[in-house]
Write a structure and sequence with these properties.
21% strand, 175 residues, 7 helices, alpha+beta, globular
């Protein structure tokens, strides 16, 4: 297990935190989601326990993702999801987009050594992020201009991504 994971609890004290905006409910996370994803030029990385439909299955956010992917052929949206089974049964707009835009959006499952990671986050263009230390609550922060913490999250994400596997449950069957 990487030491970066152990650094995350002190995450809020690092970098440019004077512009942190505190989040305390689902609606706040939806607003942050739109702010962080709006005007993204190249990359979005998301770590989520189960694609959190209350947050990520939100049409204005899906529109931002679609605009990113259509506006830049080098755009990349990477999503690590620990358990996709509930949203497969229910359906999810982000899954439908990933199935349509296979060259831009990829969903994977993290390796079992990362199962203990309880944080969730989204980072856009190595600059903006939204973060929850504990996925059991809707308490967190977002910041539109903190490269230091955005890079820290991206490093953790990349490490997890490199040890992840494609989520075979989410592949669309082509007949």
């Amino acid at each position: 297990m990487n030491d970066n994971i152990n650094l995350l609890p002190d995450f809020e004290k690092q970098g440019k935190n004077e512009n942190d905006i505190i989040l305390s409910d689902v609606e706040g996370f939806k607003i942050a989601l739109l702010e962080v994803s709006k005007d993204t030029l190249r990359t979005i990385n998301i770590l989520t326990p189960d694609l959190e439909p209350a947050i990520y299955d939100y049409q204005p956010f899906l529109d931002n993702i679609l605009e990113l992917c259509r506006g830049n052929r080098h755009a990349r949206v990477r999503i690590l999801v620990q358990n996709s089974e509930p949203v497969i049964k229910r359906g999810h707009g982000l899954i439908r987009l990933a199935q349509r835009l296979t060259s831009a959006i990829e969903i994977r499952n993290p390796h079992e050594e990362y199962v203990s990671v309880r944080s969730a986050f989204m980072v856009a263009d190595s600059q903006r992020f939204m973060y929850r230390e504990n996925t059991e609550t809707y308490r967190g922060i977002y910041n539109m201009d903190c490269r230091y913490r955005s890079k820290s999250l991206e490093e953790l994400f990349t490490q997890m991504w490199e040890h992840s596997e494609a989520d075979v449950q989410l592949k669309r069957l082509v007949i």
